[in-house]
Each structure stands twice: as C-alpha cells, then as structure tokens.
Design goal:
Rossmann fold; 5-stranded parallel β-sheet; two-stranded antiparallel ribbon; 11 helices; about 10% strand; binds thiamine diphosphate; binds magnesium ion; pyruvate dehydrogenase (acetyl-transferring) activity
Length: about 350
C-alpha cells in the first residue's frame, strides 16, 4: 500500500496533523501533485465523454441501450492507477468509463456507440459490447452477473499460465444477488485465483434500491462463506480507491486468492437513457453531487495545496473537451458498416 501521511511538524501548539481519511474512515493513498492531476484529468475525460454521449443519444445518433457512468468515475480511475500492464478488466454494460480508463481511444468508443465502422466492434456491438485485447479489456456484457464468471475464467487462465496478472471483475449491487456470482466465488476461493471482485454499489439496480432488494447490504461481506476477504471503500474518493486497489492487487499477486472491494458510489443519471427517476428524490442526487463529487474533491485539493490554479484546471478541461468533441466529429463522419458485414465477426 502507498505510505500513509505521517504527522507534520508545525509551529502551532496543536502540532500533529492527523492522516487524511476517507469519508467512511478508511485509508487514502497519499497522492503527489502528478497523481492528483492524473486522477483529475482521467475522471474529467470520462465525465465529458459521458455528457457528450448523452447529448448524441438525445439527437438520435446513438440507438439502443446506453448506460452512463457519471458520478462513479473515481472507481475505475483509482483502480487503473494501481494496475500493472497485463491485468485484465471485465465489466457489465455501464462500461464506457472502464474502457477509457484502460486507455482505449475515445474515437473508437464513440464510433461504436454510434454504430460506425471504426468502432471497437465495427459498429455491430454498441454501447454494451466492446473489447480490446490490446488494452486487456474483455467487455462490455449485457447479461447481469455474467461477467463475474467470465472474469473468474480470466483469473483461472492467469493462474494456469503463471503470468502474475490479476483479473478485475466489476459488477453492480443488483448483480451481486445473482447465483452465478457465488458459484464463481466458490471456485475462485478453492483454487486461489488472482481476481479482484469489485461491487460498484451505486445504491440502485435499475429502479430498485439496495434497501428493497437485498438481505445483506454490506457487499464486502458477501464472500465470507467462502473465506474471501472484503473491504468497504469510499468509491467517491479516488485516493481511497487507489489505497484499496494497492492492497487488493498485492493480495492477489502474492497468491492469497480472490478479494472483494465494495465501492460505495453513486450514479447521477438515470439507469439508462429512459428512466422516470421516480425511485429517488432530486435532493438525494443533489446532496451527493454537492458533497461528494469525485472530481470536485480532487479539484479542491489541487487548489488548496497550490498545486494548480483555476486557469490550469480550465486548460485541462479544454483539452479533454477537445478530445471528446473530436471523437464525436469522427464518429459522425465515419460510415456505417456495409450490409455485407451483417454475418461477419459473429457466432452463428
Ligand atoms: C440476467 C439479467 N437479468 C435482468 C436483466 C435486466 N437488467 C439490466 S440492468 C439491471 C440492473 C442491474 O443493476 P446493478 O447490478 O446494480 O448495476 P447498475 O446498473 O447499477 O450499474 C437489470 C435487472 C439483465 N440484463 N440480465
Ligand atoms: Mg447498481
């Protein structure tokens, strides 16, 4: 794990400054200026990309399903900052942020969303079905919970090959109630597979709150019957995610088997693009946005420490907006796949 802050000497009487902690009391990584700036930029890229995807959907350029990741950015960015080259990522359908965090190109993701030829699945997969072997991203899955078993297979392969890589399987609080998750937990624990199971607890599965749907809402305990340890993490604080990621990846790499990280997070937008949002109040969403926004947290620290000025941060935002605007222009100019491609790249 990253070293925790030690007490600093001050001329005032109350000398020792307590080590920073996440909102749930958990440890946070001690980010330097470069790490804070990197986290800021990466999270902003995801947010601006998702805002643009939402706009394009409204304009009719994106069809079918589309689930935005706005609010949850700290989870994938904090994890990615701890991963090593070769570690694999697999997730569900709320996947654009995961792809951008792995370094997949905004152009290729946007072209896929709009069903164009240069998309990662040649315009035939759409929002929920994209892959990049080069970036070790294994999708993009619409069947709730299926990626947990597939991710366990990736970890099995790592173990079999002895390549030292760790698989990271993301799933939601709703998916955590699926049966195949527990079949996977059993095998992963039995064979000590190198996998980090990440429950992205954003409090809702479509319109159903965790309070209404789940008997054990502390998802970090869900592996206890199999002897799989778990940690509850403030998933809105990218430093807390990084600290937990370091610990979890080390756990897996040292041969101790699987581990669960429950990320306490929140999605600001609807479940998908059509969501009446009757299941929660506007005040609840507003409270999270104003008190725990992952990007605003980093911004406030950068300013407070004098590590960046408002102008510096505006310049980063402009850069990111340019990348996103370019991806949208590229996607709209790119042709749709030819009709002759209807039966290529698919299993019949
Ligand atoms: C096996 C299966 N059952 C039901 C659905 C319909 N469905 C799509 S998303 C979803 C909710 C999942 O919620 P959660 O796991 O919390 O993920 P989130 O959308 O919050 O990211 C459901 C029930 C599905 N796609 N697959
Ligand atoms: Mg959920």
């Amino acid at each position: 794990m990253a070293p925790r802050k030690t007490a600093t000497v001050s001329s005032r009487k109350t000398a020792a400054k307590p080590a920073a902690k996440a909102s749930n009391g958990g440890p946070v990584a001690d980010f330097d200026r470069d790490e804070e700036l990197k986290a800021y930029r990466e999270m902003l890229l995801i947010r601006r990309f998702e805002e643009k995807a939402g706009q394009l959907y409204g304009m009719g350029f994106i069809g079918g399903f589309c689930h935005l990741y706005i609010g949850q950015e700290a989870v994938v960015v904090g994890m990615q900052m701890a991963q090593k080259e070769g570690d694999q990522v697999i997730t569900a359908y709320r996947d654009h942020g995961h792809m951008l965090a792995t370094g997949m190109e905004a152009r290729g993701v946007m072209a896929e969303l709009t069903g164009r030829r240069s998309g990662y699945s040649h315009g035939k997969g759409g929002s929920m079905h994209m892959f990049s072997k080069e970036k070790h991203f294994y999708g993009g899955h619409g069947i709730v919970g299926a990626q947990v078993s597939l991710g366990t297979g990736l970890a099995f392969a790592n173990n079999y090959r002895g390549n030292g890589n760790v698989a990271i399987a993301y799933f939601g609080d709703g998916a955590a109630n699926q049966g195949q998750v527990y079949e996977s937990f059993n095998m992963a624990a039995l064979w000590k597979l190198p996998i980090v199971y990440i429950v992205e607890n954003n409090r809702y599965a479509m319109g159903t709150s965790t309070a209404r749907a789940t008997a054990q809402s502390n998802y970090s305990l869900r592996g206890s019957g199999f002897g799989i340890p778990g940690i509850q993490v403030d998933g809105m604080d990218v430093r807390a995610v990084k600290a937990a990621a370091d610990e979890a990846l080390e756990h897996c790499r040292s041969g101790k088997g699987p581990i669960i990280l429950e990320m306490l997070t929140y999605r600001y937008r609807g479940h998908s693009m059509s969501d009446p949002a009757k299941y929660r109040s506007k005040e609840e969403v507003q409270k999270m946005r104003s008190e725990q926004d992952p990007i605003e947290q980093v911004k406030a620290r950068l300013i407070e420490k004098g590590w960046a000025s408002e102008d510096d941060l505006k310049a980063i935002d402009k850069d990111v907006r340019d990348i996103v605007a370019d991806s949208a222009d590229f996607a709209q100019a790119d042709p749709e796949p030819d009709a002759s491609e209807l039966y290529t790249d698919i299993l019949l």
